[in-house]
Amino acid sequence: MSNMKDALGRTIDYMRISITDRCNLRCKYCMPYGVECVPRWDILSLEEIEAVGICAASLGIRHIKVTGGEPLVRRDCCQLVKQLKGTPGIEKVTITTNGVLLERYLDDLAEAGIDGINISLDTLDRDLYQRITGTDALGTVMEAVRRACAMPISVKINAVSIDFSQMDEKQREAGQDGWRQMVELAREYPVDVRFIEMMPIGYGRNFKTINHQELLEEMMRAYPCMEEDDRVHGFGPAVYYRIPGFEGSIGLISAIHGKFCSDCNRVRLTSQGYLKPCLCYEDGVDLRRILRKGQERPEEEVHYRWPYAGRPADEELQRELRKAMEQAVLCKPAAHCFERPGQITEAHNMIAIGG
Q1: Beta-carbon neighbour count of residue 191 at 10 Å?
Q2: Beta strands of the chain (E only): which ranges?
Q3: Is the pLDDT of residue 55 over 80?
Q4: At 94, phi and psi to the nearest 5?
Q5: Gap between the Cα atoms of 134 and 288, Å rounded
Q6: How many angstroms separate the CA atoms of 9 and 32, rounded?
Q7: Mean pLDDT, range 228-252, rounded to an integer
Q8: What is the Cα gyration radius of the chain?
Q9: Checking phi first, is residue 156 left (phi over 0); if not, alpha (psi -120 to 50) or beta?
């Protein structure tokens, strides 16, 4: 199996695959009420994603993250995980979920061979959680966290670093020191609690991120024994810290105030089959056009039949996919421009791109 490098010599071995643009929550910074989903015909089928996975593995992709929307609202999610895990060359398959449906599917995911589960959870305050997500489901998510931590699977908590100063007084107070409650999860559970700077994409443009340099200083004051953790925790850009006596670790993903583009190793596949080399820009290649041989969505909803049904490894198809994917990787930009929002060309919401 070959290694895939971009024009700057960075090894590209990690792909995020969005399998749906649908979600059972309505987070204000991602998919608030009123956002419309695309027709199901526009979403890649399980076999089409499998075909892309086969090609990606042949090019050097070793690690796949299954995302959404909320991937567990798609009924064949666990089946897809199993297929990706069985693809020669793919070493790790992980999933990012909001956790609402996780307990229901934990055993199925484990049976499919999932290597890690990332649970998106921004606060442990019940009222604030409901204010952010539109749903009173914090208890359900926390039960899923507890059960997942009892399994032999890597578990991470992803918390978006939101500046709550623009919210009302009650919610502002709940969010002000909310990071401390999140950190304390790592004392009790063997989880990596990761804080992610809010990126100015889609509805995220309307929210100010907490500066992670300032957040780290606050953490160091609260936990003076906190030290860098140089163990390998995954395949992304998080910088980790450990606190003596804690079961888990703390991670910071600082796209704005800790730019990590020089080490970027990823590409993204949207649920509609668009391969993006960088989240910040609209550039990429349309793999769905190749997968479907130019078929257009019919005016009336019909049962979709893939031209390569039963043949995701078809040689001609794989050649075309390979050429397009290599082209996208070679066009990967040197860096994003999140610190200069006016230069961002990606106009889609995160729910359409894939979280």
Answers
A1: 23
A2: 14-18, 63-67, 92-97, 116-120, 154-161, 192-197, 227-228, 239-242, 249-253, 266-269, 274-276, 285-286
A3: yes
A4: -125, 170
A5: 33
A6: 39
A7: 91
A8: 20
A9: beta
φ, ψ (nearest 5 deg) of residue 342: -65, -20
Dihedral sign from CA coordinates of 97, 102, 108, 114 = positive
- The predicted-structure confidence for 88-134, as pLDDT tens digits, reads as follows 999 999 999 999 999 999 999 999 999 999 999 999 999 999 999 99
Helix or strand (DSSP H, E) at 188: helix 178-188
String of DSSP letters for 299-333: SS------TTTT-TT-HHHHHHHHHHHHHHHHT--
In the chain, the amino acid numbered 118 is: N
Number of Cα atoms under 13 Å in the Cβ half of residue 231? 10
pLDDT of residue 169: 56
Q: How confident is the model over 251-267, as a mean pLDDT?
A: 80
Question: What predicted TM-score, i.e. pTM, was given to this entire model?
Answer: 0.90
CA 220-336-237 angle, 5° bins: 40
